Amino acid sequence: MTEDNSLDDSQPFISHLVELRGRLLRVIVFVLVVFAGLSPFANEIYAYLAGPLTQHMPANSSMIAIDVASPFFTPFKLALVCAVFISIPVILFQFWAFVAPGLYRHERRMILPLLIASTLLFYLGAAFAYFVVFPLVFGFLTAAAPEGVMVMTDITKYLDFVLTLFFAFGMAFEVPIFTIVLVMAGITTPAALAEKRPYVIVGAFIIGMFLTPPDAISQTLLAIPIWLLFETGLLFSRLFVRKSAAKQVGYEQEGLDREE
Q: What are phi and psi of 58, to 5 degrees?
């Protein structure tokens, strides 16, 4: 009897593993298909990514490739990263489809909008880095080169640098999601977060100091969006608390009506 029960308990676990494997395979196949479509344009994609730097480089300088194979592998590495970047909605959908059956209705209503919002904010952070921060960063760095030094950046090191910034700004733009999740999980309250606003502002400028060149303009361009995104998350967390309180009052009122 015990063996039958253990077999019955293991079957759902095995079925979940099979489903997880299937969804991972779908994600991998989708990423590979997108990668195959981007591969013929790998060099053009890299040239577009290098635009913010090449526009500020001296007239007689260019990017260089130190390693023997880097002219071939670096653009394909970028194409693969772009394929994953483009596939994020599909990845999140597969994740959502896997966990949704085990969630309550109110949990599904909360998590799906958060997944969509977090994806859009990550894309927005990456776009902000490319169109706003990169021109300022590379303009400052190329202008700061000592006299007699020719600015000629290695293509692999440049790719690693910009991917780090993309990830940093993408995560920085997730501040509203982090704020809302902390309130939803009961870890903190909007009032407690509001009291920490001065620390958040100081922390935003510290983050801007480490992620941007040492000039006030670029630091402010990162610090102010982080602060505004914190205020946005604080606003939505207050709305969430008010909505939850209203629902709780409605449930209590419904219970009193039934008792009467």
A: -60, 160
